Amino acid sequence: MISAPAIAVDQLVKVYKHVTAVDGISFVLEPGSITGLLGGNGAGKTTTIAMVMGLVIPTSGSVTVLGTNIAQHRHRVLHRMNFESPYVEMPMRLTIRQNLTVFGMLYGVEDVAGRIAAIAEELELTELLDRPTGKLSAGQKTRASLAKSLINRPEVLLLDEPTASLDPDTADWVRARLERYRAERGATVLLASHNMSEVERLCERVIIMKRGKIEDDDTPRHLLARYGRHTLEEVFLDVVRGRGETRQAAQ
Amino acid sequence: MTPAPAITYSPRRVAAMVLRYWYLLRSSWARLVELMYWPAVQMLMWGFLQLYIGQNASFFARASGIFIGAVMLWDILFRGQLGFSISFLEEMYARNLGNLMMSPLRATEFISALMIMSIVRLAIGLIPVSLLAIAFFGFNLYGLGFALAAFFANLILTSWSVGIFVSGLVLRNGLGAETFAWSIMFLLLPLACVYYPVAILPSFLQYLAWTLPPTYVFEGMRALLIDHVFRADLMLQALALNVVLMAGSAIAFLKLVDSARRQGSLLQTGE
After folding, report:
1. Residue at A135 is within a domain
2. Any CB–CB contact under 8 A between B41 and chain A?
3. Domain of A15, in residue numbers
4. In this structure, is residue A131 part of a structural domain?
5. Domain locations along chain B
6. DSSP H helices in B212-265
7. Bigger pLDDT: B3 vs A70
8. Is A164 inside any structural domain?
9. Residue in chain B lying closest to A106 (CA)
10. Are B234 and A28 in contact (CB under 8 A)?
């Protein structure tokens, strides 16, 4: 049996007044895959992710998540999705346990207390559960946000810069947990990041955006080979600076 | 897999949001004190003014409690809306709105939670103040009996309608529109004739005043305190106008949310 795609984006366009933020992009993410969405500032990554989440209505085109048109029926699948972003925070005066209780109830988790205990142990948050979220360090806050994003065991996980402003050790720890979650649950992950080593380590596929369009879309290994580069960062710079076409043509 | 939540309205999600605001209130004594501070100051100021005027004018001596009653009913209207709007604004201040918009929480559930919190906040502020009014001025708000329930229902419905509309404005336009949450109700203060009868207004403003549900409540309160008559007709007219106002606010809210989703302003909930 052929499984339906976890996320299908078809000819997606978003125009804000006279600015085209996303310009006719299409891609399909298979269930259980982990994909990196790369692009410079203003490339359209955040708008794309916002449309996948249903926070922004496309000008044209469609987004289907777990078989549901997200612009029209997002509430049918929101309990099977979750997200994490450094641009969104959990209420700071509430403790981690209180925040996770609220989100557990919002997502329809059955045994909220049991789930909180399990995820706190998994993410090494047990000792911190009764501490106000605003009194945590950056790394602890990221772990708390990660706990929120996994509270409902999502099948589709959208991550916007999940390790931004973290020290290398904590960032590596977060990546390891994400890899483990994906492996255990078979979740589909779409990851927007500026951190090339993170994308190289985590993602089996990379979509590079520039000025609202998809400039390239392949596995990290194929991209490195095609651009004749050693790192994804070099490939990224080639693409955003417009050198990709020149190099490929020369080769 | 997590079981599918109710596709439509979920009381559990409403409870989750009420719990979230309760945790917040419980964690901050300053928020709790602030809920009681302004209503107490207002009531004491108007109460002493009424005592002074009552000693020098026979009409006010007869109409005992007219100012205190007015200020307390005004507080139901104003603090009811503020309680609704502040709970909403807390999400903007906390940068938590994205988490909520991305969760299965529906607009109707969010609004229900805000309505419940407006009553909770109102109760925390108004119950101690109503006891103070008995202690200082012998004015027993609860002595109004059934009339108080009718006044309260109409005023809280108006406050929710305004709160819903303001929340839509803030969602669409960001925290730049926050000022409406604090000031919009004061537009009603002169027109709804809180402290004086409608007949005082110029005739063209009287037409406008009678389009506002609270005008009927304050006229009803004066009829009760001065003439000792409960005007059920005024309460029914206020209720009919409230139904129209609530429907208008709900439509405006949904259109503003839709516009916010089209303009991408849910992503930029700052200034």
Report:
1. no
2. no
3. 7-87+155-218
4. no
5. 24-263
6. 213-227, 232-263
7. A70
8. yes
9. B13
10. no
CATH number of the domain at A175, please.
3.40.50.300
* Contact by Cβ (8 Å): B85, B253: no
pLDDT tens-digit series, residues A163-207? 877 788 888 888 888 999 999 999 999 999 888 888 888 899 999
Query: The tokens of B4 are what?
Result: 């599918």
Inter-chain touch B20–A91, beta carbons under 8 Å: yes
DSSP letter string over chain A?
A: -PPPPSEEEEEEEEEETTEEEEEEEEEEE-TT-EEEEEE-TTSSHHHHHHHHHTSS--SEEEEEETTEEHHHHGGGTGGGEEEE-TTS---SSSBHHHHHHHHHHHTT-SSHHHHHHHHHHHTT-GGGTTSBGGGS-HHHHHHHHHHHHHTT--SEEEEESTTTT--HHHHHHHHHHHHHHHHHH--EEEEE-S-HHHHHHH-SEEEEEETTEEEEEE-HHHHHHHHT-SSHHHHHHHHHTT-HHHHHHH-
Best residue in B12, B18, B23 to probe A by mutation, most A CBs within 10 Å? B23
Number of domains into which chain A is organized: 1
**Over 80: is that where the pLDDT of A87 sits?**
no
CB contact under 8 A, B95 and A88: yes
pTM of the model: 0.90
For chain B, positions 222-251, list CB contacts with chain A under 8 A. none
Alpha carbon A12 to its chain centroid, in Å, reads: 18
* B195 secondary structure, DSSP code: S
| Residue (of A158, A152, A198, A157) closest to A175 by Cα position | A198
ipTM for the assembly? 0.88
| CA separation for the pair B44, B58 (Å, rounded) | 21
| Nearest-angstrom CA–CA distance, B154 and B217 | 7
The amino acid occupying position B147 is A
Confirm whether A166 is domain-assigned. Answer: yes
Query: Across the interface, do A102 and B15 touch by the CB < 8 Å criterion?
Result: no
CA angle B88, B170, B99 (to 5 degrees): 55
> Chain B interface, mutation test: which of A46, A72, A88, most B Cβ atoms within 10 Å?
A88
Q: Which amino acid, one-letter code, is at A17?
A: K
Q: What letter would DSSP give residue B138?
A: -
CB B91 within 8 A of CB B181: no
In contact, A199 and A38? CB cutoff 8 Å: yes
* Bridge partner list, A159: A84, A191
Taking an 8 Å cut-off on Cβ atoms, the answer to whether B262 and A88 are in contact is no
Q: Enumerate the residues of chain A whose CB falls inside 8 A of the CB of residue B7.
A: 75-76
